[in-house]
Structure formats: structure tokens, C-alpha cells
Amino acid sequence: MEAPAGLRLALVFAVLVHFSLLPTSHSLSSQDLQIVSAERRIDLTSHITRVYLTLKVENTGTSPPASEILLAFPPTEVDHIALLKAAVAVGKKKKKSYLPLDVKPSEGPEAPNETKFFSVLLLNPLSVGESLTLEVLYVLTHSLEPFPLEISQSEPQLVYYHDSAILLSPYHIKQQITVIKTPSTKVESFSRVEPTDHAGTELKYGPYEDRSPYSFSPIIVHFENNNPFAVVEELVREVEISHWGSLQITEHYKLVHAGAQHKGVFSRVEYQSRPSLSGVSSFKNLIARLPPRVHSVYYRDEIGNISSSHLRKDSRKSELEIEPRYPLFGGWKATFVIGYGLPLQDFLFESSDGRRYLNFTFGCPLAETVVDKLTIKVVLPEGSKNPFAIVPFPVEQSLEVSYYGIPLLSSAETLTSYSYLDVVGRTVVVLEKKNVVPEHNSPFQVYYNFNPIFMLAEPLMLASVFFFLFVACVAYLHIDLSIRK
């Protein structure tokens, strides 16, 4: 299939960018390891790219047992990695299970043109003559680029994805294949690195035999993808804990359609009369997956409450379908707030050492959405002490203290918030993370110490206010303020 002139130029550019990653005369390997077989499956069915990699690794050298396996990435791809997980297969067939492994960035050996490495730490060193099967998942964001950059209301959205037909690795690979899955059969063009096969929604590159370390063969796939490119530029989730039985969640969204920019004039008549042809790459609703037993749900923007939302609940989950005031085309933005309440007993527990802890879900409740910057603020009850968070991946904590809404720099890892009837203020644990994907929606915990005496502070304050008001009224009625004798 012949590529158009613009795509040929893009392919030439990709070749120039990655040319120096081709094998050199001194191919390097960190250890005497080789990959017996490599199968890579790249899922491009949404705007979030997911790569599933299965590696059978064998130690064929005479050096000491290998304690780690290196994964290599081009420097242009590392910036788009939102998540990288690895597991080792244990057992056979029906009894097979997967044990998670630690993955961390690594300097790795000397490699051509700034190749980046991640180290997978093995549970048991791989001795000479032994082999293992490694399962790797990594998720890429903002890796699909619109081509063309601007489209009209009646045009479909075309994007291109560039990668390598050959897996970049510091090890010799005996056999490998790469399978790319697209959202539909509408593929405009693709690079050919024989053997290459295109059938339905799948592109297959390979099998390739006996590839030396750091082999690289750039490819570009140009295809139609009309799925919502929903990107939350900034999300602030406020989780307020009240020991009187309530958990209040408030989420502030700045949403954008990150696909091809809309050009021309928007026609509402055409959009509604030809929904299957007009604005096929736009989206007018999103699904927010909320915890079960949710209540007091509201959805509003700067103008006010938005009634075009639907809540579906059952004993296991709740789904909120939200519709912005207007459909979102490429480059269009929307700002809104979602709030809801939850029963406290479902999320607040007490540990064996007497600490209380919140067990909540990290990430964004909107389905298939990328969050460029996520901030979670856990507002603890007044009087909470020594808070700390346990999150299954690296996050940042803010270093500021706020008094009555005025933030001040501090070396503490918490800030203080004041609400109604507070005296000493509430501790707020702030967690920040960039480049968040749905795979980050996993539980995290916030532990803290709490003295139950503080639960009496607000009732005593209210009782004191009414008591002094009553005393003042009685005194006023019994005091004679006249000037006559």
C-alpha cells in the first residue's frame, strides 16, 4: 500500500531520528542472556496505548546468575510511559500464575544514542542454563499524533503511531513478532518490514529471526481513530473525612479533547441530523465509575447545576453518565465539578496498633481518560496527628501550611485547612502525580492517630454558644438600664 507524500516525509523524519539506534559494530549486552522468543502486542484501540510484552529469557553464559533483566526504550518513548509493570510466570497451563516484580529506572550498560533502561528485579537469580517467562505491560500517553492536525466537522480523525517493528533490547533475540491492533479496519497506510501482514484490525510484523542487540527498524501506522481523546489537564479531588459518619468527595475537572483540532464553523443542525457522519470524533458524554452506595450526587460548572446526567446504581458499583453543555471537538475544553457523599464505614477502618486509616481509590473515575496532573487532598478530622500515606507507586506530597486559606511555605508534608466550627484546624494530606491512566486506579491508604475527645469539640462549642446566648438573654431581661430612680 503506497503512503501519501505527507506520510512519506514523516517516515523519513522518523528514520532520521532513530537511525543511530541501528546496531553498531560493538553490540553490547549487560550479561550473557538471550531472548529465546519475544511477542509484543500493541493495543491502539483508544487514545491510550497499551503494550503487552512476553519474553522468554535464557541464561546461556558462564557468568554468575542474573538478578535482573533490562528493558530498553528509545529516549523519545520514555517520556510517554505512564506505567510499567512486570511479572514472572510460575507453573504450567491451568496452574500458571504470575508473581509481580519490582521495576525501576536503571543506568544500564553503555548503549547507542541515549537508550533508556528499566531494570526488572528477579525474585530468584537466573542461573546458567535456566530460563523464565516474563510478562511486561507498559502504558503510553500522548503517543498518537493527529494527521492531519485539523479536521472539519464532517471529517473522520486520522492519527499515526510510530514505533519499531523490531524490539529494542540489549540482548540477542532469536525470534520475535509484533502485532498492532487498530480500532477498525480503516488503515490508510503502514510501513512494511517484511514479513508484514495486514488482516482485519491487526498488523503483524515478523517473525524475525536472530536479531542482534539494539536492532531497530522504524515504522509508522496511519489509521482512523474516532474514539474520545479525553484528557483531564488538571484534576483536584478533595476527600473530607467526618467521624460523624460521612465521607464527602469533591472533584474539580479541566477537561480537553486532545485529538485533531476542529476547523470551520460548528453546525448544531448538521450534528444532530447526521450523528453517524458529523462529528464522529467528538464526544458529548463520559462515564464516571463511582463507589457503591453513593448519595447526594451533584454535577455543575461555572454557570450552575447541569441536569443532563444520569446515575445508575447497584450493590457493586455506581455509574454517573455526565454530559457537558456542548459536545467536545478537538481542542475544545470544559470545566466542571462533581461531588458526592459516601458512608464512612465502607472506607474508614482501625488498624491493630490503634491507628485509623482511610482506604480509598487513587486515580480518576472517568473511564478511559488520561490525567496530566492529579492532586488528591485528604482532609482529616480535626485533632488528627502523625498522618502518612501508603500509595502503590511513587507520588509527591506538598510542602506547605495553610492558615485560613493563606498558603505559607513550610518543611511539613501537610497543610492545615479550616472548616466550620474548627479550632485548631484540620490536617490535609496532599498527594500529587502526573501522567495518570486508568491502571493507576488502585487502593491507597492514609493512616493517622486520632483522640476521640476531639469529637466532643464541636458539640461542646455549640452548647457553649447557646448557653452564653441564653445567659445573655436572661441578664438583659433582668438588668434595669433606665436612668430614672
TrEMBL record:
<keyword id="KW-1133">Transmembrane helix</keyword>
<protein>
    <recommendedName>
        <fullName>Dolichyl-diphosphooligosaccharide--protein glycosyltransferase subunit 1</fullName>
    </recommendedName>
</protein>
<comment type="similarity">
    <text>Belongs to the OST1 family.</text>
</comment>
<dbReference type="GO" id="GO:0018279">
    <property type="term" value="P:protein N-linked glycosylation via asparagine"/>
</dbReference>
<keyword id="KW-0472">Membrane</keyword>
<keyword id="KW-0812">Transmembrane</keyword>
<comment type="subunit">
    <text>Component of the oligosaccharyltransferase (OST) complex.</text>
</comment>
<feature type="transmembrane region" description="Helical">
    <location>
        <begin position="460"/>
        <end position="479"/>
    </location>
</feature>
<dbReference type="InterPro" id="IPR007676">
    <property type="entry name" value="Ribophorin_I"/>
</dbReference>
<comment type="pathway">
    <text>Protein modification; protein glycosylation.</text>
</comment>
<dbReference type="Pfam" id="PF04597">
    <property type="entry name" value="Ribophorin_I"/>
</dbReference>
<dbReference type="GO" id="GO:0008250">
    <property type="term" value="C:oligosaccharyltransferase complex"/>
</dbReference>
<feature type="signal peptide">
    <location>
        <begin position="1"/>
        <end position="27"/>
    </location>
</feature>
<comment type="function">
    <text>Subunit of the oligosaccharyl transferase (OST) complex that catalyzes the initial transfer of a defined glycan (Glc(3)Man(9)GlcNAc(2) in eukaryotes) from the lipid carrier dolichol-pyrophosphate to an asparagine residue within an Asn-X-Ser/Thr consensus motif in nascent polypeptide chains, the first step in protein N-glycosylation. N-glycosylation occurs cotranslationally and the complex associates with the Sec61 complex at the channel-forming translocon complex that mediates protein translocation across the endoplasmic reticulum (ER). All subunits are required for a maximal enzyme activity.</text>
</comment>
<keyword id="KW-0732">Signal</keyword>
<keyword id="KW-0256">Endoplasmic reticulum</keyword>
